[in-house]
Amino acid sequence: MAHNTGDFSPLNIAVLTVSDTRTRDTDTSGQLLVDSISEAEHRVVDRQLEPDDIYRIRAVVSAWIADSDVQVILITGGTGFTGRDSTPEAIAPLLDKTVDGFGELFRHVSWEEIGTSTLQSRALAGLANRTLVVCMPGSTGACRTAWNRILKEQLDSRTRPCNFVQHIAPAPACETRS
């Protein structure tokens, strides 16, 4: 069980929804992440929606990785096996280190909700230029599970014995660009 002690350090987080069918109005997964980030007192510094295209995904994420204002990138969608799902292929080459435990833990906690269907999740995470990049499935339920069961604690600087904040580059004060 994690213990929360010390001072809270808000993070600058960008959200990308990967979808060929959703719009900003119908993007319930991206909105859930935005709302969760704000409720946790972090800052949403950018939010975008891109079709499931490897090079468009890489372009957005590469720009965020290079932006010193972005400390965490949350990506929802494109992690399955169907059709054009290509988020893992787009993101994996950009990572300096992978966080293998994220995908493993996500599938473990998802087991309770969706059983063996969790095998078809290619959720992954890693660090690139001291920016945490997290890829999760596109369903709102999967985003809720990832946030509530993993990310909320791991993005909280008070979580002990460890959290990801210590591995993320400090960001200068910035304003929301939505």
Automatic annotation (TrEMBL):
The organism that produces this protein has a lineage beginning with: Bacteria, Pseudomonadati, Pseudomonadota, Gammaproteobacteria, Pseudomonadales
In Swiss-Prot or TrEMBL terms, this protein is called: Molybdenum cofactor biosynthesis protein B
* PROSITE patterns tied to this protein: MOCF_BIOSYNTHESIS_1 (PS01078)
Q: Name one GO molecular function term.
A: GTP binding
> Can you give the residue ranges of the MoaB/Mog domain?
14-158
Protein family per UniProt = Belongs to the MoaB/Mog family.
This protein's pathway reads:
Cofactor biosynthesis; molybdopterin biosynthesis
What does it do?
May be involved in the biosynthesis of molybdopterin. Can bind GTP and has low GTPase activity. Can bind MPT, but has no MPT adenylyl transferase activity.
Q: Which UniProt keywords apply?
A: GTP-binding, Molybdenum cofactor biosynthesis, Nucleotide-binding
Q: What does the entry give for GO biological process? A: Mo-molybdopterin cofactor biosynthetic process
